[in-house]
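Deviations from the work plan: none for this task. Representative record:
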Amino acid sequence: MSSHTLPAPGDTHGHDAHGHHDPNLQHHFVEMAQQFDTAKLGMWLFLATEILMFGGLFVGFGLQQAKFPEAFKAAHHHLDRNMGALNTVVLLISSFTMVLAVWAAQTGRRKVLITNLILTLACAGTFLVVKYFEYSHKIHDGLLPGKFFHYAQGQPNEYIFFSFYFMMTGLHGSHVVLGMGAITWLLIRAIKGDFGPGYYTPVDLVGLFWHLVDLIWIYLFPLLYLIG
Amino acid sequence: MATTSTPVTHHGGQHAPHASYLEDPQYRGLMSWLTTVDHKRIGLMYLWSVLTAFLLGGLFALALRLELLTPKEDFMTAETYNKVFTLHGAVMVFLFIIPAIPAALGNFVLPLMLGAKDVAFPRLNLASYYVYMTGAIMALTAILTGGIDTGWTFYTPYSTTTGGAVTLMTFSVFVLGFSSIFTGINFVATVHKLRAPGMGWFDLPLFVWGTYATAIIQVLATPVLAITLLLLAFERMFQIGIFDAKLGGDPVLFQHFFWFYSHPAVYIMILPGMAIISEIIPPFSKKHIFGYRAIAFSSVAIALISFIVWGHHMFTSGQSQLAAVIFSFLTFLVAIPSGIKVFNWVATMYRGSISLDTPMLYAISFLLLFTIGGLTGIFLGALSVDIHLHDTYFIVAHFHYVMMGGTVIAFLAGVHYWWPKMFGRMYNETWARIGCILVFFGFNITFLNQFAMGAKGMPRRYYSYLDQFQGNHIGSTVGSWVLALGLFIAAGVLLASLRKKYDAPDNPWGARTMEWETQSPPITHNFPNNPVMQHGPYDFDAPAVRRES
Amino acid sequence: MTSGAHAAGHYDHANDWKLYLGILIALLILTVVTVSAASFDFGSANVIIAVLIATCKATLVALFFMHLRHDSAVNAIIFLSSLLFLSFLLILCLIDIGSRIEPKPANWKGPSPGVIYPADLDKPVAPATGAAPASGTTPATPAAAPAAKH
Ligand code: HEM
Ligand SMILES: [Cu+2]
């Protein structure tokens, strides 16, 4: 009825019988290419759920912002643009090092892979340190979400902005921490020499996750820090 | 068993050549079940869990109906009644009906139908089960520590101000959402990547199409529920000012967010039900399914359209008139693919040689009941009509016709259909049919007159009512007893079969989909060798092809 | 061709890092653009400009860093449909909130459209249908239900 076969569409090479002996091949897959494509598809589906989850917050933020434009404008002046911009740059660089790590694994450059994973971790750490300073400043000033807000000269409804600020950056920050855990795991496996051109699925998947974290920040930064 | 046809494959179950997944010597004992990554075993664990939830939710329902026997307060105060109907709704929706077909039956059958050894991500599958159990335990804790009286919809501002264990319950539903997401991710990837050689998209059994469409909804809609419930919990705990009008929030926004998930979620419930019906009608009519592609595409169309109609739950909520008109219009669109399916099923049966075994009896009940439920949905989608009917028993009747008369009946059809495959035993056909008939009549006695009651003005969610409605209420309560009797008979028949030796042939119904080409119950890796697609899922005209090569 | 490196067969990867570096530079430039654009006030276009620039950046990340350019189309479809469905949520909510009219009783005789202030509601209004509220909501008590409907 149809000419579709088991491997991914368009992928007709790589039917090597040796795939069966690859220790990384799980029993319910026929060959590595199929397993790799499946894992990637699963990761993209997961990323879609992440987008919709963050998306709900973005929509809520947008609607409340439309409702209280003055309060949001006033509130966003309390955020430090420079810190936000710095973190943007840091995350962009980390995305770059991450993609280099994937590339290194794919082309069998083990040292480059390890270096770039470490660099990515360093960027992620920097991001969190900057966030820490921002948070402690807000906490000190009482610029807090909901009922914890106690900034003396606060405008009415300003706390709604900070509710969203903390929820969005908090959820994002927790993803950064998760990503760091995953990258550390990659690093250990990379040092053990687990990855190479024949098998680098985990590097690729964590890479995708990490880029998504970057992608969300790309929207968070202007919306929170620049527009308010 | 005069009505069943001869098995297609040659060996009967009694002399199963290999040990089945149930008693594989490699996997013995409790631990082998708790740590299994076999989709069939996970499916069974889900099956027993959702059935327990169904029993619990059902007992709540019987209690509600008993209280409503008289217009006065009998044995429940208003507060207790509110809690019980909330628990009934929440347990049935989140613990039973959403996971029932995909996670229990789908898990078992989907890889078999594709000729695959397992789902794409077996460990994620097991994780989904444990996440589900975690959510279920949280829900039970919430029930025992204060209960919830918001209704399963958690509407603000009531849910941000009332007492009880609302926060815990929202977290529980949040967690349950993730188990549903995991199942969805798994199924989409499985259908894309693990089809048997030679099996194209249009060779897929329609059950696969239905669960695939469901999985899309699970993946795209559930995250929004998760974030909504998180916002609700934060609003309760920290007064963040999003849903509470007093704090500058917008309670109607909660309804938008909630229904953005929950309308698609009603299709998470019904699409797999429809999928089962598409699977059952052809073998019991001995005919190729009519309009294969129409049914397949209508599943996907339903999944997509279901995302843009949610506002029909909010016609009286204070959303703008413009939005209400748009949503009313869009709601009518969703009826088209639903109608296409019903007509195709009927056309499949037309002039077929129909055998009325229990699965088919349930499938026919589904056709009748779902049509009533769907049609009344159209009434409710009409803006002006809904203003009158909203929050009355008419709504209760509508959604029970689609959820109970549709999904639950289809679930029962599926359980009876695949039972021989899952457990390797045939059940007592006569008693199973009696159970089915009692369920059908009990259901109609309970809910048909609720349409009338609702149209006359009986509001939903009240523990007492005006005397004039007592006749209807007595009818409903008596009906609920008949329904319960039917369900207990069905359960008893199925459980009794488990005490027998394996006696199910590989293919008791003469079906043509791949799950019937392996032994009953299947071996751990499903098929002795990698199966190859040799005939379509509904090719009843083509000669039987053996699996062996 | 080694299995696992699915897209690797099509061309040589050795120089990919140059491409990635170029993308990084483009992303950094766009960051400068968005920060400097924010120092001007374009009124209500502010949000649109910021989101547009962010979308350019996101597109670069998705196409190059996330390899969507060479990947199988399904992954791109998944990604785009998540955005599509998110836009349904946003647009339909906006339609509602943008077109809401403050509620007023059907028998309201006061100043026509516009905001009704709670204080005004205390003024006596000529009752049109006896005491029953004229709005379409469900009555609060079962006892009131039939009364309001007849
Ligand atoms: C033909 C398709 C359908 C249409 C047009 C439709 C329409 C509607 C409308 C307009 C309402 C809102 C009534 C009100 O609250 O005033 C409603 C309620 C409901 N529908 Fe449907 N419906 C359809 C199918 C389904 C299906 C298949 C299910 C579930 C399997 C379902 C489950 C529900 C539930 C649970 C409610 C009540 C929710 C609540 O307020 O608690 N519907 N339906
Ligand atoms: Cu709906």
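Residues B 153, 266, 269-270, 312-313, 331, 334-335, 338, 374, 377-378, 380-381, 386, 390, 395, 398-399, 402-403, 406-407 surround protoporphyrin IX containing FE (ligand 1) (CB under 6 Å).
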